[in-house]
Amino acid sequence: MRTTRTRRHERGAALLVAMVLMALMGIIGFASLDTVMRDRQMSGNHSLSQSALYAADAGIAAALDVVRTEVVTAALAPGDCLTNTVPSVTLPNGSTYGPDTTAPNQICMLASAEPCSQIDASIEQGQPVFLNTVWNLRSEGTAPGGARARAQATVVRCHAFNN
Questions:
Q1: For residues 48 and 21, which has the higher predicted lDDT (pLDDT)?
Q2: How far is residue 155's CA from residue 47's CA, in Å, rounded to a whole number?
Q3: In the chain, where are the structural domains located?
């Protein structure tokens, strides 16, 4: 049996230990909450960056469509750029794409090469000449949160040049 004197010295010791443990658990809880909040924020930023990149990629697809449908004259030489640019479009998710604002020219022919292998009979007098051409395409995408991404692609296209 303990004496009353020993019990008097132990009063409050359990309360002090419980308070210290509660404080430690609170600190660990707040640190965990902070970590989760930062992870969610980083995940959201990554999602916005991906949306902007996908929008820029859609801009490259639109520029490729311009290259496919543009009538190229014989006056166009490697190094020249098309007057048509990447169209500006708003996508259903709120992202937009359009011309790359850091580059003055978005659709430029880098080179023309040998005749296309699919069209060997294209060298008749007065008929269009079909040549492989190399194009540089540039686009910029913007996500609803303001994230921006730029994309650049080089494509090869069989093009008809008018004589």
A1: 21
A2: 28
A3: 4-162
